[in-house]
């Protein structure tokens, strides 16, 4: 029995498909209609509430559903019904995205679907839960179903584990975006995270911070490139690189417990007055953890990346502005070029990720007050 026959479709994907068939492809639904609640859907499909929530996240990323807090789940668009056999002509492209950052995936998907439509292509979506094995299953399945090519927003493999893209379907057209690594051996589109790390660190140095912490994230390509930019910025101002100021955030992210990581950094004799987080949501988790401490927390500025902050967030902080919509557009153009040319040279295209500062961002004129923060930590070691 082949590997595809042995694998089972994830539960949330089955639920998403049932919702499509029952509500979106039935011919009786209209834009603006409200679906049953999450609890009712869980009972109807005999699955857990988290499974239903994940399925709804897939459909929201496709742009066909919208969840409004306190109001319900509403249909925002109707795809062409499979039952009628009416499907767009042209190529069939796949987009595999991880659910790690759904707001980012949704922006990329919007660029993918718009550009694919301009080329007369149909896009089929699969979402994974930061799981390379699940991601590989979707790639194999899309190839088996006859898709012409796939765009992959990859998950991060554990350190030391070869990534499946290095040897899975090497002749099948694939474009890897954002988190691509050279060992994947695929054409890719990435953001200039080296410069993003450089610019962010220089901003903090200009604001008067001398001890700047950095939170890495396993072997994530984007975060690793930012760390290189961080080190270059320190060297350019004769600041020493101190390994104790760099902590890996994978365990904190996995356990959803950011306290021990922050405790370790803030207990250093010369503790950081600023911390560079891997991305905006991680920065938000850190700030929420610091806010929740009953005795308060020492003053520390936390910054992030990717510009996913919303008006609902309590804190606004420096970030970067990668254009994820354009990333999706460029990925479709690259994939179609590969399909047409029957060639797949593993070239890499680098896109900008400019610094974005909020109105209340610390400026160099305020730096003098930070001198009080750069004193040894009185907490006993």
Give the class from helix and strand content and strand pairing: alpha/beta
Return the CATH topology of the domain at 193-320 and 356-371: Rossmann fold
Global mean pLDDT: 84
What's the gyration radius in Å?
Answer: 23 Å
- Which CATH C-level class of the domain at 193-320 and 356-371 is it? Alpha Beta
Query: Which term fits the overall shape?
Result: globular
CATH architecture of the domain at 193-320 and 356-371, please? 3-Layer(aba) Sandwich
The H/E string reads: HHEHHEEEHEHEEEHEHEHHEHEEHEE
Number of strands: 15
Total of DSSP H or I helical runs spanning 4+ residues: 12
What is the beta-strand fraction? 15-25%
In which order are the strands of the major sheet placed? 5-4-6-7-8-14
Kindly describe this structure.
This protein has helices at residues 3-6, 11-24, 38-45, 49-61, 102-118, 132-144, 193-206, 221-236, 250-255, 259-266, 280-291, 324-341; strands at residues 34-35, 65-68, 72-75, 92-98, 122-128, 149-152, 174-177, 188-191, 212-216, 246-248, 274-276, 301-303, 319-320, 348-351, 355-356. With 381 residues, it is α/β, with parallel strands linked by helices. Among the domains are: 10-83, Orthogonal Bundle (Arc Repressor Mutant, subunit A); 193-320 and 356-371, Rossmann fold, CATH 3.40.50. The strands form four sheets. The chain has a six-stranded parallel β-sheet, sandwiched between helices. The protein has a four-stranded parallel β-sheet with strand order 10-9-11-12, with helices on both faces. Strands 1-3-2 form a three-stranded antiparallel β-sheet. A hairpin with a 3-residue loop joins strand 2 and strand 3.
């Amino acid at each position: 029995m082949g590997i595809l026959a042995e694998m089972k479709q994830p539960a949330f994907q089955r639920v998403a498909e049932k919702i499509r068939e029952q509500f979106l492809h039935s011919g009786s639904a209209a834009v603006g209609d409200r679906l049953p609640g999450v609890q009712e859907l869980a009972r109807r499909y005999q699955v857990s509430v988290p499974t239903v929530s994940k399925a709804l996240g897939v459909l929201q990323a496709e742009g066909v559903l919208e969840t409004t807090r306190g109001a319900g789940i509403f249909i925002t668009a109707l795809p062409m019904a499979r039952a009628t056999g009416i499907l767009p002509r042209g190529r069939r492209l796949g987009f595999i995205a991880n659910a790690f950052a759904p707001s980012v995936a949704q922006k990329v998907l919007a660029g993918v679907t718009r550009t694919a439509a301009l080329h007369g292509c149909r896009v089929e979506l699969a979402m994974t839960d930061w799981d390379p094995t699940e991601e590989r299953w979707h790639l194999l399945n899309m190839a088996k179903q006859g898709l012409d090519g796939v765009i992959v927003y990859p998950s991060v493999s554990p350190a030391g584990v070869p990534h499946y893209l290095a040897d899975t379907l090497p002749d099948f057209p694939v474009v890897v975006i954002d988190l691509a690594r050279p060992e994947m051996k695929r054409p890719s589109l990435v953001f200039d995270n080296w410069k993003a790390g450089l610019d962010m660190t220089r901003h903090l140095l200009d604001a008067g911070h001398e001890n700047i912490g950095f939170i890495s994230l396993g072997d994530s390509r984007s975060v690793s490139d930012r760390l290189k930019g961080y080190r270059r910025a320190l060297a350019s101002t004769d600041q020493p690189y101190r390994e104790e100021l760099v902590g890996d955030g994978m365990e904190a992210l996995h356990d959803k417990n950011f306290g021990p990581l922050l405790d370790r950094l803030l207990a250093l004799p010369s503790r950081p007055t600023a911390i560079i987080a891997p991305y905006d949501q991680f920065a938000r988790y850190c700030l929420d953890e610091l806010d929740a401490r009953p005795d308060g927390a020492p003053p520390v500025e936390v910054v992030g990346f990717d510009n996913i902050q919303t008006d609902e967030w309590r804190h606004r902080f420096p970030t970067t502005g990668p254009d994820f919509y354009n990333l999706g557009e460029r990925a479709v153009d690259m994939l179609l070029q590969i399909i047409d040319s029957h060639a797949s040279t593993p070239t890499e295209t680098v896109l900008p990720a400019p610094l974005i500062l909020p109105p209340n961002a610390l400026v160099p004129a305020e730096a003098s007050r930070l001198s009080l923060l750069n004193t040894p930590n009185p907490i006993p070691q």
